[in-house]
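User: I've been going back and forth on whether these two constructs are worth ordering. Before I decide, could you fold them both?

Assistant: Sure. I'll take them in the order you sent them. The first construct and its structure tokens:
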Amino acid sequence: MTNKVKLSILGISFSQVQAGAYALIFAEENGIRRLPIVIGTPEAQSIAIVMENMTPPRPLTHDLVYNIFKSLNIELLEVFIYKFEDGAFFAELLLRQNNREFRIDSRTSDAVAIALRTHSPIFTTEAIMQNMAIVFDEKEVLSTDLENRDIEAEEVPENMEEVKIDALKKRLEEAIKDENYELATKLRDEINRRKSAENG
């Protein structure tokens, strides 16, 4: 049985390294780990509208799905982010209609936008949290002199593969301290890519 971790939405931050994208930040329930997921502008706007208790003049796509669910007596029991593969998170909707439960594959951003409207819980796996989450430590991160190339606070080098892994780890700590989760996501992915290459 998959060990599930319940998530809540901590917020949305504007991408500083990818034009037209945002970082959706999840927090684990009763924990200090954060799971950043990069999403597009339309999905970010749809999520933000619900989080800010705003009502658009006309229904958005996710509002339409929500209205269809209500009309057909479909209940969204949960959203489950179950896999990370090839740079993308995979999610599914667990639905119930007339005592019959079924699952539908979904983009994570769409699933979250719908879950916010139906007030449904969001889960992921412990494996995803262990491999992809960032541990947020409120303690001050002490700077350490390293004999490696340093990375400026808002810089993500185009040739990141040429930066030594110790320098990437140092910058990751700084990004977490600054709560720059989108930058931390890029650094985390590069570090994980190198670890996978070494183990492969």
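The second construct, handled the same way:
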Amino acid sequence: RQPRLDGRIVGGHRINITDAPHQISLQTSDHICGGSLISKEWIITAAHCTFGKQADQLRVRLGTSECSRNGQLLNIKEIVQHEKFNFSNINNDFSLLQLQEPIEFDETKQAVKLPTQDQEFKDGDACYVSGWGSTQNPLESRDWLRQVKVPLVNQEECNKKYSRYGGVTDSMICAGYMQGGKDACQGDSGGPMVNGDGVLVGVVS
């Protein structure tokens, strides 16, 4: 399958940036992907969002609930793609972005909590995905940050569902509802999936 370059929150609700102060919008002329602050000058996003792009083609908007205005719009100094990123099956879909200048943290800008090396996440654990992607509802604005709650899905079960696309790899984690209706969609790619403790569980691919 080809990666979706503009993922979206389906079946979620509006939140304020203070509810997810790690959330950023990655932009060219407009929003293309999400991402998460992991320090005062580094962001994690999806490698397919930055694939084939130069740092000077991208900017980051942060500290705002609206992806098209307010907050700060910052330049990127460097893109560090995962060295084993595979565009054909989207394996190792991670990329790091270094901001031109470190930012100051406040209630609208904070680093996301990172998991410990041996931290485990269980099937069914509730997680939260946020972003500015499509809502698939023409009455809902995609300019305002939204969030959806989704449970983690058993890896084997997920692998079966994705078998016609080549399955899932060990670097992937699945979340969502079998009946559908709530999920990330185009435009949410690169954005965070955190658990109830605010720990980064995955990056939307």
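Notes on the second construct follow. Residues 112-204 form a domain with the Thrombin, subunit H fold (CATH 2.40.10.10). Residues 155-161 form the longest helix (7 residues).
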